[in-house]
């Protein structure tokens, strides 16, 4: 069975990666349709499936697709996503924005963890990229030892703010090296040769929204209690791509580091990179462009002792944290039968 697939926002950083992942993973695409704004409508995009003319987005046209990937703003998703997934002509919609992540009737899915949730709705939310990367490492450890508390610090690349963020970093770096003024329109402060301990807006509890997303989404995806203790400090760093995360966990059961390494080495979507004698550990340079999340620096925590583990994680957030996860959701729905090709006259 093959499918008519739509992408909204295909010219943005995540949208481009969704198309690339569909192509490289040989998702069964019968026809690819790309929807955009009035500015991009009528332009042509070269794809594996032939040249595709960008169409002006229209709900009725998009509902002719079997599945639509939304790589657009939350406001756009709020306006259109539920319309796409309702009625006799409803289509499956996989939304990359944060618009529906906390809605009780909308599954928030990392397929390796809770893929069965995709059977419950035609509207599926993709998690925040930081959360998705962390959970690839945390889920196998939770299965093995039971997580009790999680403390995380993230080191997030400029690409977390999309193509404009990457452009601001590269242009600002050039300006800095030329002795010129560095402008910042995307980030709160100039990013070149700097780190910024703020991503998104500050909340009343002192955390930023980006940090709280990790807490809220981890609880929902992993089926943890609403008061499960997880805190995060999110920092923007001057790298182009791939987010890094330092994670400390307290566990319910005693930790066996060798067993943890074995579980991570066998976990789907994870690459164990943990050979300190050879100076091998996760890094943005090696994680960029990779589907798997790198995990390493595993050691027993000197804070929590036998009931603690510390690790370092790095993953390409445009892939594992966004485009790849979205396509894996669609693949899961093909496998479990919740994505069906519409009958055509």
TrEMBL record:
The keyword Oxidoreductase applies. Pathway: Amino-acid biosynthesis; L-threonine biosynthesis; L-threonine from L-aspartate: step 2/5; Amino-acid biosynthesis; L-methionine biosynthesis via de novo pathway; L-homoserine from L-aspartate: step 2/3. Residues 4-121 form the Semialdehyde dehydrogenase NAD-binding domain. GO terms for molecular function: aspartate-semialdehyde dehydrogenase activity; NAD binding; NADP binding; protein dimerization activity. Its EC number is 1.2.1.11. CDD domains: ASADH_C_bac_euk_like (cd18131), VcASADH2_like_N (cd02316). Gene3D superfamilies: Dihydrodipicolinate Reductase, domain 2 (3.30.360.10), NAD(P)-binding Rossmann-like Domain (3.40.50.720). The active site is at residues 129, 243. Pfam families: Semialdhyde_dh, Semialdhyde_dhC. It catalyses: L-aspartate 4-semialdehyde + phosphate + NADP(+) = 4-phospho-L-aspartate + NADPH + H(+). One of its GO terms (biological process) is methionine biosynthetic process. It is an enzyme of class 1 (oxidoreductase). InterPro entries: Asp_semialdehyde_DH, Asp_semialdehyde_DH_beta, NAD(P)-bd_dom_sf, Semialdehyde_DH_NAD-bd, Semialdhyde_DH_dimer_dom. Homodimer. PANTHER family: ASPARTATE-SEMIALDEHYDE DEHYDROGENASE (PTHR46278:SF2), DEHYDROGENASE, PUTATIVE-RELATED (PTHR46278). NCBIfam families: asd_B, PRK14874.1. Belongs to the aspartate-semialdehyde dehydrogenase family. This is aspartate-semialdehyde dehydrogenase. It comes from Phaeodactylum tricornutum (strain CCAP 1055/1).
């Amino acid at each position: 069975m093959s499918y008519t697939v739509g992408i909204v926002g295909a010219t943005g950083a995540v949208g481009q990666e969704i198309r690339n992942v569909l192509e490289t993973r040989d998702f069964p695409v019968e026809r690819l349709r790309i929807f955009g704004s009035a500015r991009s409508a009528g332009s042509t995009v070269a794809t594996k499936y032939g040249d595709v003319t960008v169409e002006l987005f229209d709900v009725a046209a998009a509902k002719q697709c079997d599945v639509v990937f939304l790589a657009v703003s939350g406001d756009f998703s709020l306006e259109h996503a539920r319309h796409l997934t309702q009625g006799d002509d409803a289509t499956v919609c996989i939304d990359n924005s944060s618009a529906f992540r906390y809605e009780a009737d909308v599954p928030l899915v990392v397929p390796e963890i809770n893929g069965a949730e995709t059977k419950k709705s035609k509207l599926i939310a993709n998690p925040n990229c930081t959360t998705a990367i962390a959970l690839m490492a945390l889920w196998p450890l939770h299965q093995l030892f039971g997580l009790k508390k999680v403390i995380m610090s993230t080191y997030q690349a400029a690409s977390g703010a999309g193509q404009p963020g990457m452009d601001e970093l590269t242009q600002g770096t050039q300006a800095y090296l030329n002795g010129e003024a560095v402008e910042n329109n995307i980030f709160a402060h100039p990013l070149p040769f700097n780190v910024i301990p703020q991503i998104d807006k500050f909340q009343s509890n002192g955390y930023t929204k980006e940090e709280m997303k990790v807490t809220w989404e981890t609880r929902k995806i992993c089926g943890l209690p609403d008061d499960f203790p997880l805190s995060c400090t999110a920092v923007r760093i001057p790298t182009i791509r791939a987010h890094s995360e330092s994670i400390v966990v307290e566990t319910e059961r005693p930790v066996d580091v060798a067993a943890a390494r074995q579980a991570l080495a066998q976990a789907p979507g994870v690459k164990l990179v943990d050979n300190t004698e050879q100076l091998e550990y996760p890094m943005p340079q090696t994680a960029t462009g990779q589907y798997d999340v790198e995990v390493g620096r595993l050691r027993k925590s000197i804070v929590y002792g036998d009931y603690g583990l510390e690790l370092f994680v790095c993953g390409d957030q445009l892939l594992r944290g966004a485009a790849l996860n979205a396509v894996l959701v669609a693949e899961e729905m093909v496998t479990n039968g919740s994505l069906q090709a519409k009958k055509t006259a």
